[in-house]
TrEMBL record, chains A, B, C, D:
Pfam family, one: Aldolase_II
Catalytic activity as recorded in UniProt: 5-(methylsulfanyl)-D-ribulose 1-phosphate = 5-methylsulfanyl-2,3-dioxopentyl phosphate + H2O
Organism whose genome encodes this protein: Exophiala viscosa
Cofactors required: Zn(2+)
Family per similarity comment: Belongs to the aldolase class II family. MtnB subfamily.
One term under GO cellular component: cytoplasm
Lineage, uppermost ranks: Eukaryota, Fungi, Dikarya, Ascomycota, Pezizomycotina
Molecular function terms, GO-annotated: methylthioribulose 1-phosphate dehydratase activity; zinc ion binding
Domain Class II aldolase/adducin N-terminal per the UniProt entry, residue ranges: 20-225
Free-text function comment from the UniProt entry: Catalyzes the dehydration of methylthioribulose-1-phosphate (MTRu-1-P) into 2,3-diketo-5-methylthiopentyl-1-phosphate (DK-MTP-1-P).
Coiled-coil ranges per UniProt: none
Protein name: Methylthioribulose-1-phosphate dehydratase
């Protein structure tokens, strides 16, 4: 019997293989409250393959065999060349897929999408204070040093102001792609885009960089909400 | 020796058998703070049997042998046909049983009852803002898409307004049944009913659907409480 | 070699033996944030022995061999008959011991002391709102039904008002004993006494009853603090 | 093959050996939210060696082989005598190293650095209420008794006022050393120094003392923030 569905692509003894790492990360993100109720998603690019968590699966129970694999020859390759080379039976691909691919085209190796309540709340507070076109801004908090300044530019300094663009949410997740690409054009150094009333997309060169950046940003969002409650300014 | 108490009904090697799944879910709900101090409950219908967590057992320590089994020939069958076919020694059946059965009569496969503090707080805030007859309302938050619009109607859209009815609490849990049934008549599309100063009942076709819906709603309640603290409107 | 230190008293294969149960409960209480920084304590009476967690040990790392054992012939026996029959080397007995014994004299089988922040905050809010002599009061919250009305009196009804006495803190923990005994005299039905700026003592006939009561009360304290932040009255 | 990198220094079967204990503590601190996004750090001095968690490693995944070892003949020995005798390949030493060493020179056996949000928030609230030169002050809270009064002076009494100095943050972590040393000179009894907009350094004679002190202080900072929200004074 041939491995017609390319199951070998998600079978590995290496705990850091994307098919093993995505379930482990999803379980951890569930504990952090980022992917409640099957919300959010995670994707990793490795060589010419993209591995994606499916839609609608309880994140803390995800298994390697639930993972979709997409052929992704090289960044900037015509999108028509991308096709699923492994689809788990009875599962639907994530609606976040086009957004993940948009970050991989820009060189990312991993992209994480969460519904973190702190992320949602800072999008609402920013709108309330500065209007729809404002980005989230915070400065002189040590944890900013966990956020890169831009590709090849090192990390933020303590005295820098961190800016994360905010895009408006759309009825369908895939329609966010255009907004996300526009935000990246406007903020070419950003590794994250907030989505109003929805959550955040965070990416990085490696899974470790994307995941630790996601943690640092969530720390800053939670701190910002608490600071707002206590009458303390963000910048 | 005959299995006079039908113990075989709660003995299975399948981790997703209701007698194994209910303890696993209860343990998880304990960690989420939903079933503190033996509060709350969980029930699963499988074929013609209903499995119910007992009253008064520490949820994080529940075992398959603690589970009650009720004969439940088919929905809409005369209630008199329902009787316990397995009762654990020294345990009392859950006072939530009539409420669970009311949802099973309407086709549910799993019903979850929590004492979530976020659920209690939104019932109090809704009363304070809009009076006793108001339901909980929230709109344009992405997580709403994790809540079904009604049987066979798909999920809520981002721009929909989610409405969850609120019923008044009663001195005895079983007396809630009538209120719950009335709320379902009034909101025939709902899969959840809030109980003022008490908690919430959430159900679904399957345990996974009931559990992930319960998570999405709890996320929305927590967000709503935080939004209220920050002066942000729910709709 | 004789077992001169009565080590056999804390060696048992029964996971529910006090010498095994106290470490398990302490680990769970640590996770709940009740016994941070070696604060708080737990004691269980079994037959004529009282088992007590030591002072100064990290609660999540406690081991059966760390447990003190006190001879406690029967309640109401002259206190002079009580003496340690097992003392772990290099450990100090808990300063809570006289308070635990005071509850055992009144028939308790288990007493738990936590430094829960919610408990501390309700003692401060009660003082601010109603003065030093007021007790904590809350009513018409379902979780009240998890609190017994008094020995042999069943649980609180939903429409009852729950009252927990509050005593003033003292410089030395053992000096609290007199205040605790006075509070029990004044509130003979109570199974718990709050200590201002300090925490709470909770007891019950069995470890399970004391632990689930402690959970229900902590739930109510947390809810009360959140209600206060949201401008919602407790009664 | 000689053990040219002194790997034997981080290989031990003793679970409490610094090379095993540091990863275990870091994992626990991650769960407590103290070292999110690779922030914070931990160091233990044992005899004439100092063991230090590296920079940039996910704290919950740290392994003994990730640990740096520094020669530290005796406190007060000329700093020039200190050199790394084990460096993990591909890892950078922690920027906190000079601060850890400053506490070891004063006799500490373990130093912990966290980015706790509660610590950050009390530095901001103290500045807002009392200006840049004020220290954090709190009194008459039982948990204060978990904080030592100074070397050889026992623990704080309930009626004492606890004071923790606050230093201003600097662009580079190593530049904090001078501020930390000055704060210790000014508050010779302190075992902790808060860093504005950054976090806290906490130390003790042993890892257990430093860790439980860190817990007690974090408890007090969290309580202080909640008290401030509720309009309750700290002293």
């Amino acid at each position: 019997m041939a491995d017609q569905n390319n199951d070998h692509l998600v079978q590995s003894d290496d705990p850091d293989h994307p098919a093993n790492l995505i379930p482990r990360l999803c379980k951890q993100f569930y504990t952090l409250g980022w992917v409640t109720g099957t919300g959010g998603g995670t994707s990793i690019r490795k060589d010419e393959h993209v591995f994606i968590a499916p839609s609608g699966v309880q994140k803390e129970l995800m298994q390697p065999e639930n993972i979709f694999v997409l052929d992704f020859p090289t960044p900037k390759y015509p999108p028509s060349a991308r096709k699923y080379i492994r689809k788990p039976l009875n599962l639907k691909p994530s609606a976040c897929t086009p957004l993940f691919l948009a970050t991989f085209e820009r060189g990312a190796g991993c992209c994480i999408h969460t519904h973190s309540q702190w992320a949602v709340l800072v999008t609402l507070l920013t709108e309330k204070m500065h209007g729809k076109d404002a980005c989230f801004e915070i400065s002189t908090i040590e944890q900013i040093k966990g956020v890169p300044k831009g590709p090849g530019k090192g990390m933020h300094d303590f005295f820098d102001t961190l800016r994360i663009p905010i895009i408006e949410n759309t009825a369908f997740e895939e329609d966010l792609t255009e907004h996300l690409e526009k935000a990246i054009e406007q903020y070419p150094d950003t590794y994250a885009v907030l989505v109003r009333r929805h959550g955040i997309y965070v990416w990085g060169d490696t899974p470790a960089k994307a995941k630790t950046l996601c943690e640092s940003l969530d720390y800053l969002f939670q701190l910002a909400v608490e600071m707002h409650k206590l009458g303390l300014a963000w910048t």
